[in-house]
Amino acid sequence: MTKKVYEGLRVLDFTANVAGPICTGFLADFGAEVIKVERPKVGDDLRGYSPQVNGVSVMFEYPNRGKKSLEIDMKDPEGREIITKLLETTDVLVENFRPGTLKKFGFSYDDVIKIKPDIVYCAISSFGAEGELSQLPGFDLSAQALSGFIDMTGFPDQAPIKGGFVLGDYAAGNAGYAAIATALYHRERTGEGQFIDISTLDSLLAQNGQLEVAGMGYEVTRTGNHHASLCPFGIYTGKNNQSLIITAPNQGLWKKLSEAMGHPEYVDDERFVSMVSRRENIDDVTNVIETWLSTFENIDDAKDILMEHNVPCTKIVSTYEITQTKTNWDRGNIIRLESDMSEDGIISRGPHLRLTKTPPVLSKAPSLGEHSVELLTELGYSSDEISRLTEKWS
Questions:
Q1: Is 313 helix (H, G, I), strand (E, B) or coil?
Q2: For every residue of 326-356, which 3-state class applies, written as one string?
Q3: Biggest CA pair distance of the chain
């Protein structure tokens, strides 16, 4: 059997909610031993989120797949002593508290490198480890607001709209994993660990493709269902509010779209001869496309014609439909994940990082404190001491 990439790597995970657990979840997928340190009795906040099945939160399962749970009181000196012992064999520490929180317990980066000099220490926060915003409380919506994402979402004559996903948290989780992988490669070459500073705001800001345009002095804001620069590139509505995503921004695709609509003359129409002219005349472009779509009782028939002409087009599907689509199961985008919620497991996201030689493996999320006895035994605690500690904290 192929050795997993991070087999033998120990990760101490002080994360909760979404951004941090998403980051450490990837490490677990590739074989790292991820020890999730959780507060007594309640654990990660996600454990209390709805919906719940058999007392287990559906929201908790995917971000915390494949981890071990250590239930421990960090405010207790005995709890801090256990963390200190674990750090001696830890390769990566990940936390997503407000900056400075772990310092109160004696586990800041400067503290930890005295115990494990080559550790890779990743801090994920809302606004970064330093700067005037660093001590402010914040969630994903704060990052959406400050990154320009909310301002860019919706229609120009209406109030802005938040994203349908927790985008900043996922962006930060992915960024944290990428940074840790980079830092581990550096450590492999040099023997040096390092501090990693990841923020949800920074991570979402990096996704704003209009920043350079704004930097040139152009006013950019939300453009509804259409792209700020590309045309046609958006959502087009036909009869009975049926819609299609149609993306034909370059000349070749515009020619194919014109032919599919039965109007090859649009290619030479002065309103449509270039992407710039089409964007300047976006209302006319929208009108000719939607007039054509309105001739179909079932928009699937229009989609079939566009596909025959190799015009990129897509129907909008619901999240429920995604979980029922055969191609998603075939691709492994949707899987059945082992879970305490059900003997049959749960329908879950699968791995989107696909490697042929070292494929990720997703496994069960832990119950609160499930691995406390195992880990304390490894550290040399006697059965009596373990019973005393677990009873005190559970």
A1: strand
A2: HHHHHHCCEEEEEECCEEEEEEEECCCCCCC
A3: 85
CA atoms within 13 A on the CB side of 114: 6
DSSP 8-state code for residue 44 = S
The token pair at 77 is: 């000196």
Phi, psi of 200 (to 5 degrees): -65, -40
Residues 6+ apart with CB under 8 A from 304: none
Active-site residue, selected from the candidate residues 169, 197, 202, 340: 169
347-361 CB burial, b ≥16 within 10 A, e <16:
ebbbbeeeeeeeebe
pLDDT confidence band for 1 (50 / 70 / 90)? low
Structural contact between residues 134 and 127, judged by C-beta atoms closer than 8 angstroms: yes
Q: 130: left (phi > 0), else alpha (psi -120 to 50), else beta? A: beta
pLDDT at 139: 85
**Phi/psi of residue 135, each to 5°?**
-95, 5
CA 209 to CA 225: how far, in whole Å?
A: 16
* Domain boundary assignment for the chain: 10-207+323-393, 233-314
Q: What number is the average pLDDT over the span 318-346?
A: 95
Q: Which fold has domain 10-207+323-393?
A: Rossmann fold (3.40.50)
Half-sphere exposure of 214 (CA within 13 A, CB side): 11
Residue 360 to residue 372: CA distance in whole angstroms = 25
Stated as kind and residue range, the H or E segment containing 293 is helix 282-293
Instruction: Give the model's pLDDT for residue 2.
Output: 66
Distance CA 41, CA 56 (A): 14
Sheet containing strand 243-247, strands side by side: 233-237, 243-247, 313-314
| Cα–Cα distance, 195 to 193 (Å, whole number) | 7
Cβ within 8 Å of residue 394, ≥6 positions away: 40, 41, 71, 369
Share of the chain above pLDDT 90, in %: 92
Closest CA to 128 of 153, 108, 99, 101: 99
Tokens 């989120």 identify what position? 49
Q: What mean pLDDT is predicted for residues 320-334?
A: 96
Residues 6+ apart with CB under 8 A from 158: none
The CATH fold of domain 233-314: formyl-coa transferase, domain 3 (3.30.1540)
269 is catalytic: no
